[in-house]
Fold each of these.
Amino acid sequence: MTAYAIAHLREITPHAEIAEYIERITATFEPYGGRFLVHGVREQETVEGYWPGDVVMIGFPGIGQAREWWGSAAYQEIAPLRSRHIKGDIILVEGVAEGYDPATTAQALRDGLDGDA
């Protein structure tokens, strides 16, 4: 099942180390089947709420590969190049299975309410 590394980058202080990080990151995730899906889009359209900053999204074949990449020596070596100059949040999340039906989730929610609605 596809998994994603998603970063919400807010406070960015331009620095040469960020350029080096960007130059080197692809080589760290390619061995795990990763690829950029979204990279630092500043022109995103916020349609509800408040979304300051940029978003980066990397897709992986599965959550195992995403975790292996995150913990890899190659990525951990370059991570400080980013974290010293960019504040934000990063998550690893598994996608939904092929054929996912949200009605099943809604029914489970209704079943859990047991008349509390």
Amino acid sequence: MISFVGAGPGDVDLITIKGRKLLERADIVIYAGSLVSKEHLSFCKKGCKFYNSASMTLEEVINIMEDGINKGLNIVRLHTGDPTIYGAIKEQMDILDEKKISYEVIPGVSSFTAACSAIKKEFTLPEVSQTVILTRIEGRTSVPENEDLEKLASYGASMAIFLSVQQIDNVVEKLKDGYKRENVPIAVVYKATWEDEKIVLGTLENISEKVKEEGIKKTAQILVGDFISGDYERSKLYNPEFTHEYRRASK
């Protein structure tokens, strides 16, 4: 069996129990070496073969998978965070489907939730935002025109921007154009949950300078929105005046 496993954002204990068990049983592990902590590999059994996909092509990855399956081996394709978000797993799964090779996908903790936890905030606050937008700025990988960062920012929703800190100036300008103001709170979280995690807080007015001062050029989440520091209404779920299926109002 081939298992696509989300390794989590960095801290090795943020992998799921199911993902850890699959690693322990694996005969072959193909891991995203540029982002996944190698400490995950210490949980593998003796004799397990490791392949760092950072230096491999899609075809080379598939060849190793196919060869392992033909030998009856257990294979883990270890992706950073959650494999379904910017994981490039679709192209792998399509080829496996063509070859009639079965596989499974095991979710993981994404860096966007890890980053929000690092700054001790909540994306969805009553009367502030009930929507979270996950996106990235255009780089070597294009973005559909109707998903331009400026247009998405105009909704005023909570945002988590992946793979974009290297273009922080461009990101900020597009966000300013979308939000139509410069006092929008923003957080840049470098390597969320890793030992060398850094958190930079600011607004659209000053975040670029702060990020540059910290030397952050990659491996960071950009979180934007009033959920970071705005006022909010108390949740009805635990309000004593609110009745729901499991509790009657007490006031």
Amino acid sequence: MCRHLAFLGEPEALGALLVEPAHSLFRQSWAPRRQRHGTVNADGFGVGWYADGDPVPARYRRDGPIWGDQSFADLARVVRSGAVLAAVRDATEAGADGEAAAAPFAAGPWLFSHNGAVSGWPDSLAAVATTLPPADLLSLEARCDSALVWALVLERLRRGDDAAQALGDVTVEVARAAPASRLNLLLTDGATIAATAWGDTLWYLAEPGRRTGRTVVASEPYDDDPSWREVPDRTLLAATRTDILLTPLKEPTA
């Protein structure tokens, strides 16, 4: 598994979101409190953020543990943003993809992360993969399950589906092909967040009382604020700075 987080609100330093809280994503890389599968998230990490006036996010990704990257420590101290998606990657089998396999994946205004695993990978998704245009398959950034799931989501976004619809449809499609999969997906365009809870924990913190609102969606709470709420399993979340909508996802039929 992995741990990930998305944030919308008034600009904050990356460190205030990802490093400083008592149970931050930084700490979750070695001491997650609610992770159900795996214990150490040290096979890469990444953070994407949006700058004012630019719809295309910047990314910083590495293939090692977040705690060993001093350049990230400097970056997190000075970079501020009002929209962020970050992830730490669970220890996995050795591969050649390096940081290309670390979330967030990106295209245009979108940032994406997958917390989980596709059961039976890669054979289980062989048929699903054939539904993608050949150019999309040849353009996969990495050869891991998350990269293919991202390609499936992106194909739907490009044909006009909204973020929540794209995530929900892909979750059900992949779960139908690989029933034991864990598919907590997270997507943002800098103005909205969409996420699925399917096989692992997902929480949100909504603070609409602030001047423009503030929303955090994460694998687990980064502090002990009682306002955190857990998203039920098999649920689709759609959020802005001020609103949260939860919709049950139907179990796939054969």
Amino acid sequence: MNPSRRSFIKKTTALSAAASLSSLPFSLLGNTQINPIKIGIIGLDTSHAPAFTKLFNAENPKPELAGFRVVAAYPYGSRDIKSSMDRIPGYIDQVKEQGVEIVDSIEALLQKVDVVLLETNDGKPHLEQARAVFKAKKPVFIDKPVAVSFADAVKIYQEAEAAGVPMFSCSSLRYQKNVHAVRHENKVGKVLACDAFSPATLEPSHPDLFWYGIHGVEILFTAMGPGCESVTRFSTPDAEVVVGTWKDGRIGTFRGMLSGKHDYGGTAFGTDGNLFFGPFEGYEPLVVQIAEFFRTKKSPIDSRETLEIYAFMEAADESKRRGGAKVNLEVPM
């Protein structure tokens, strides 16, 4: 065979191979999906929005996060909580650097995406925003707080179920390594008690613990599991302390720190020993769970447990109003 003929065959073979590879759903070289699941973000008033975007849109994401792309974001978000509003312009710039398109309405966003991260830091508009997502039939993760009241939280879950739309909500602290291990890996045997703590900055427009105390309360419930039947709250100038009694007699406590610099953590006490939680390990463990949820359309958390967390926090407020009286939890659904 003459050299020119041999060269022609090699080039033809290479082109054919390239064409075959291009027909695959994944690029073998870049390990990125050609048709990713398109994610939209509602709310750029929280650090979670750029942090989650950075994980999903990384050039070489973790295998668990491959096949996704945050493509669009609607910035609002709070319009009356200054600490949230002031962050929006900077977070717009950060997500735009990750290739995210900024849109001027939730409706415009929903036309461009397959799934939604409802990241609005302010819980007040969550019910209205979630209803738009449910109407569009898009699976949604709703970041904390799920709503600005227990009643709205119940409505969101009921309306998601009625619309047949998969959703879940939680704090990232649920998926800290040791917290998750106590619940899912039997790390301390049967959990007998748990003391959890976190910062608990207050925001006047939200029930006390909804705004930031949710993080430590989520740690408590991840360790103890559902089944709390009553709470009693004690307030000091530096902390809010809530004591919960579970139906089987176990006691769990949450200490929300109001002043000073504090991390997130606690201790689980079990039949096989104790385990300390903390410090904060970042958002990646939660984002991995969100990715799996978007793939499977199955919530990793029972809705009733999440609603019990909000009932616990609202009952804690009621106990405070009653001067520390015991308040029973009531969880519908």
